[in-house]
Amino acid sequence: MEYEYSSVDRIKTPHNYMYTSYHGTPFLLAYIKDRTDKIDFNQNKSPDEIFVEILAMLEKSTKGITTDVDKAETVFILRDILKNMITNEKQNSVYAGLSRFIKRYEVTKKVYAYYDENGKAYGSYDALKPYLYLSLACLVYFSKYKNLKMLNCALKLGDVFSSRSYKIKNKKLLRLCFQLEINSVDTVMEKAGIKI
After folding, report:
1. How many whole angstroms separate alpha carbon 193 and alpha carbon 37?
2. How would residue 69 be classed by pLDDT, with cut points 50, 70 and 90?
3. Which of 140, 126, 128, 135 is nearest to 154 (CA)?
4. Tens digits of per-residue pLDDT, 89-113?
5. Domain assignments of the chain as residue spans, ordered by start
6. Three-state SS string across 43-98, please?
7. Measured on CA atoms in the order 161, 10, 77, 82, is the torsion positive or negative?
8. Mean pLDDT of 147-164
9. How many whole angstroms separate alpha carbon 142 and alpha carbon 32?
10. CA-to-CA distance for 149 and 139, rounded, in angstroms?
11. Cα atoms found within 13 Å of the Cα of residue 163, Cβ hemisphere only
């Protein structure tokens, strides 16, 4: 079985995921193969080990950058949400901030470079880093609080950048995202008693 959800560019051709049927173990195996074929995969990392790598990467990639939230790029807002979640700071605003991005993504199937304080999108939507950061934020939230809404969005985002993985320059970011995604799916499968 082929994993169809990342077989075409999901930014140019979004999938609505409505009434998607479940195909059992062959589907899950195809999904895992789709993700692991695109990265140097190390399944033995715990979420906490991945969180440490994410924090180090965030610190390195945005060192010395300050932001004004009203004018900030999406990646910087998501970077701050990620840091706050991993370090357990400002938890009361994390869910609300993350939910705003998820709601916009679920409606448009795009993550834009900028959003104003009212949630209006502007700028480009074809850069992959905002998709990766939103997915990481959803996956970190799921890992900590087991919120399936977050995992659902992260899986859809994963299909987007899986379909465009050849365009992603930061392969470490992609690897961290897919590792955390597969760990999260393993958690759900284990809880449901599914073994593959």
Report:
1. 25
2. very low
3. 135
4. 777 788 988 999 999 999 999 999 9
5. 4-192
6. CCCCHHHHHHHHHHHHHHHCCCCCCCCCCCEHHHHHHHHHHHHHCCCCHHHHHHHH
7. negative
8. 96
9. 18
10. 10
11. 21
| Residues present in the chain in total | 196
* 68 — pLDDT class (breaks 50, 70, 90): very low
Question: What whole-number distance in Å separates Cα of residue 87 and Cα of residue 51?
Answer: 9
Tokens of 179: 């590792």
Mean pLDDT, the chain, integer: 88
158 sits in which H/E element: helix 148-163
Instruction: Count Cβ atoms within 10 A of the Cβ of residue 72 and give its class: 0-12 exposed, 13-18 middle, 19 or more buried.
Output: middle
Please write the tens of the pLDDT for every residue from 156-180.
Answer: 999 999 999 989 988 888 999 999 9
Question: Which pTM does this prediction carry?
Answer: 0.90
Secondary structure element (H or E) that encloses residue 159, with its range: helix 148-163
